[in-house]
Design a protein that fits this description.
The protein is mainly alpha-helical. The chain has helices spanning about 1-45, 50-80, 85-90, 95. The longest helix has about 40 residues, at about 1-45. It contains 4 helices and no strands.
């Protein structure tokens, strides 16, 4: 019986060592694959989620400021239109926006 127990102990130890080697190989393969994917993504100029969220927040803020400024310009134009003749109101916006120094 002692011989069988030693045999099973040796088989058990061999399997344990094999599982350790397999686990190490798995970890090494995962690390290599992650490195490859990271390099591939860096070559494609993808942005991170944090960068995307930051630019999105800037765009939302710019849109809000643009709407506020548009409302302010409309109010100023309405105030100016009250004191000027109607012909001044019919000028296209592009001719009013161009200023030559």
């Amino acid at each position: 019986m002692q011989g069988q127990n030693k045999f099973f102990d040796d088989i058990s130890r061999l399997m344990t060592n094999a599982m350790g080697v397999a686990q190490g190989a798995k970890t090494e393969a995962e690390t290599a694959m992650k490195g490859w994917v990271d390099r591939w993504m860096a070559d494609r100029d993808f942005v991170t989620r944090e960068e995307f969220d930051a630019v999105r927040a800037m765009a939302v803020k710019a849109r809000e400021e643009n709407a506020a400024l548009a409302a302010r310009v409309a109010a100023l134009e309405a105030a100016l239109a009250g004191g000027k003749p109607a012909a001044a109101e019919k000028k296209p916006a592009s001719s009013r926006a161009k200023k030559t120094d």
